[in-house]
User: Fold these one by one.
Assistant:
Number 1:
Amino acid sequence: MECTSTVVDLLNDARARTLLRYASFHNQWEALFPLHTAIYAAEPLDNEVFGELFAAIAWLLFFTRLRHLRLSGVGLPRRLIPHISRHVTLERLTLESCILEPIMIGSLHPRLQMPNITSLTIGFGGTPRSNSMECWSVVLYCVNLRQLFVYPVEDNSIVHYPSSSLFDGMSHLHYLQKLHIQGGSSLLRPLASWIRHSGDKHARLSHGHLTHFKLNTVIGTTDDELSILLDALSTFHPNVRVLVLEGIVDTAPAVTRIAYEFPQLEGLTIVRKVDMFQKTVRLCQWDMPSYAIAQVLAALPRLQHFAANLDYTRLTFGPAAFNALAYPALDSVAHIRSAYADSIDAILYEHLFSPSRVKTAEEKATCLALIEKRDCYDSLLDGPSIARPFAVYCNSLTSFAIKTDRTAFSCHIRRDTHGNAVLYDVVDKDVAGGFEAWNPLHFETWMHLD
C-alpha cells in the first residue's frame, strides 16, 4: 500500500515524527471507483486488505505525539483500540463513514475503553456498510468525553439519535461540555430521553456540565418536539451559555421558554423554518415581531450575541433617513447641516436626493468614499433598524446578526458614555461576520477544548 510506505517514510524523518500532531487516513476507493467497489469492494475491516493499514496506524501512534486522529471510510478494529487508549497526547478522534467490529456494538467492554479521547466527531453514512445506530456505540468507549460533534456525510441525510438500548452506557453525556448535532432528525424525543436518562443517573451529584449546545435539523421541528427537548435541557443543563437551534417552526413559544429557563445564556441563535417540510434555510417572517422578541430576550442579563433568520429588506430606509426628509427647505448643503446637524448625512442626502444639482468632483468623491466606508449606512439601511430594538432592550448585547446558512447582515454594538447603544462594523454582505465562537460555520464545530 502506498499509504503504509508514506507512514514508514514519515517515521524515518525524525523532525516530522516529532512535530506531527494530526493524521488522517481516508479510503477513497468508493469515491473514485463507485461502480467497481459496489461489486468488488472489500469490507472495511477485512484484515487481508486493510491489515497493513491498521499496522501502519498502530506504528504511527506508537512513535508520534498525535493529538488528533481521523479515519474515513475504514473500519475501527478492536486491535487498534489499545494503541489509541495508551497514547499519551491523543485526545481527538474523528470517524467518518466508519464501521466497528460486531463485538464493539451495543455494549461496553472495559478493556476497549478510550479514556484519553475527550473530543469525538462522527460522520454518519457515506457507505452502505456505515450504519448510524452502530456508529453511536463509539460513544460508549469514550468515557471521559467532553465534546461531541455528529453530522451526516451525505447531503439530505439525517442523523438518527441513539436507541434507548445504549442509554445506560452513554450516561456520561451528563458531563459533556459541548454537544453539536448537524443534520439531525426533527423527532427529538429520543434525544430528550437520552439527556434525561443520563441526567437521572447523575442528578444527585450536580447539574450537567453542558455549556454549548447546537442542534440543526434537516426539516422543521414542531413545538411539541422542541418543548420536550427544552424541558430536558433546562432541567439537567440549566447553565448552558451558548445555544443554537436551527430548524424551529414555532419560534414564539421557543423564545419565551429559552429566555426564562436558561438565565446564563451568553449567545443565542435561532433559525426558523416555516413548516415541517422545509429543508432549505432562508430568511423568513417569524410568528412574532422583532421588537417583541427583543422585549422577551431582555430577561437574559448576560446575553452578548443574538442571531436569527428574520426577514428584512436591506434597502428600506431606517428612521434616521426619514428625519432628514422632514425638512422642507433643502436647497443647500449649508442648510442641511444646520437643520440636520450631521454633515455626513447631509452630504449623502444631497448626493442621493438632489441628482440635478451640479456637484464638484471633490463632492462626488467625498460622497462615494463615505458610501464605500459605510459610515452613513446607519441612516439609510434597514439592517441597523432591525438591530436597534435588541440593542436597546438587551443591555449586555455586543453583537447581532441576520443569518441563514451564512450571515446576511451583522453588526457590533457598543455603549457610549451615556449608555446609548451605538452600532459599528455594520456589514450587509454575505460574510461570516466573525461570530463562529457563538455559532460554528456550516458543517464545522467549536474549537477543541484545551
Number 2:
Amino acid sequence: VRMPKRHVGGLMPSCRMPGLVLIGSLAWLLAGCAPEAPPARPTPSATAVTPSPPTTTTPKPVLPPTQAFPSPEASPTATVEAALPAAMEVVVTSNLDYARDVQLDVYSPAVPGAWPVVLLLHGGGLSKASVSGLARAIAGQGSVVFAPTYSSDEPSPEAITLGAEEAACAARYARAHAAEYGGQSGRLVAAGHSAGGAFAMLLALAGDDFTGECEAVEGSGRVDGVVGLDGAYDLMRYISTWNLGSAPAEAWLEISPYAQLERQPFHAGLAFRLFAGTETELVQDGQAMRDALGHAGYTVEFTQVPGVDHMGMASSRRAQTVLAILALARGG
C-alpha cells in the first residue's frame, strides 16, 4: 500500500530546530512544528466575549521543512582541503521524469567523451537541489551524474520502501540513458549523503528486488559500488521508536541494509568507500557498516574526516570525497 507523498520542497510552517542540524534519517529525530489552533468563536450573547487565546498542540514528530536546513555549501566545515583540477564546463538537464511523480537532473561534461556514471542520492527529507553543488563538481571532473529527488519524508516502512523503489528506478534510468549524455554503459556507482547512504547500500545489495513504477523498466537496479557520505545506514535506529506500526517484520527487513547483507548472495566486485565527519553523530554508523561489510567479505574503506560536520560532508568543495567518487566510478 503506497502512502501519500508530501511535496519535499513545499512551504511549511517554521520549526524550532535543535542546535545540531542533521538531515536524512536524522531529520526523523526532530520534533515537528506545532500548528496554532484558530481562535475560539465568541459565545452568542448581547455582551461581547473576549476570544480565548490561541492554543497549541504537540503533534507526533514529523520532518522539518527543507528550508530549515543549511545547504552543504553553507556549512562552516565545507572547506577546501585540497585543490581540485580545473573543472570542465557542465551541462545541466533538469526535471526529467524517471518514475511516477518524481524527477531527476543530469549533469554532464560539455566535452564529448565516454565518461563514468554516478547516481547521487540526497539525504532524507531533502531534494536533488541539496546536492546540486556536489553533482556539478563531480561532473566537472569528468563524469555524468544523475541526481534524483526520491521520496524520503515519512518515517515508515511503506514510505521508505517507496523511496528505495524510486532510487532503483533512477538507477535503471541512468543505465538506460547514460549514453545520451556521453556516459559509459555498464558500470554505475551510487554516492549517498545521510539517509541517501542507506538507500545506496540497498541498491548495491538488493537493487533488483525494488521495482516500482519506473520510466525505464529494463536493466538492473543494482549499482556496482557505493560512496557513503556520513551515511545513516541503520534506518531502524532512528524510526522504529516512533513508528513501529502494524507493518510486518518482512517490511522492515526489506529496508535494512544489514538484513539485506545477510539475505543476499555475495556480489563479486562490489566495492565500498565510506566517509564520516568527526563532528557528527554518524561515525558509529559508518564504523558498524564497515565491520558488517568486511565480515561479509567485501572490500570496504572507512575514512573519518577531521573537523567536518554532517552537512559539510556533502560539500562540493571537499576534494577528498569528490575524487573518491570519481575513482570508484572509474573502477578504481
